[in-house]
């Protein structure tokens, strides 16, 4: 199985333009035969809590149909970030597209404290089961909550996929934390982060992958969009970047 983490620069609050950029990178990882691809936290809007309520939608938004088509046609599972809204609340969510299946909305269960005035925590834990792997998605601050990793381990996860916004001030601690998650839980661990600016943060990039011993085995730079693909069978790592202008 080939799993891709995509490093991304978002345009503030512009779902249509961000969607166009998503499609470019999805097609790139499809070209390299990826089976799964994940983007950073709230990737379709950028990490913009002040705009989240006005931008919030749901998994059935017809603008997302083009992602479902790519999933169906290329047998790839895709996770993108989006604020969603239920009857009363706005949530930090990941919409997961699987080939020829109903979409899944996974919402962040453990919120970064400043988010609590804007968002509500999700209630449903999730792992994604494939033929050879079990993937546990995590949204940013969830990586700091021990209960999230414990659920992954209890449910036989083999891969931990963190979709984050991490700033240049927080990247060292985040990478140390993810290395520890990989080592302590024997999980292949990946991180998808932003480059550029979002939500007032200068984003650090450095999207990465750690092996089950917690060793860093692949990493992107701090300025470029791009992807890392990891082949769980051959252990091959494929990277590609595009300089931001």
From TrEMBL:
Gene3D superfamilies in UniProt: Carbon-nitrogen hydrolase
Keywords of this entry: Hydrolase
Molecular functions (GO terms): hydrolase activity
One of the Pfam families matching this protein, by short name: CN_hydrolase
Segment forming the signal sequence: none
InterPro entries in the record: Aliph_Amidase/BUP, C-N_Hydrolase, C-N_Hydrolase_sf
Location of the CN hydrolase domain: 1-234
Protein name, as recorded: Hydrolase
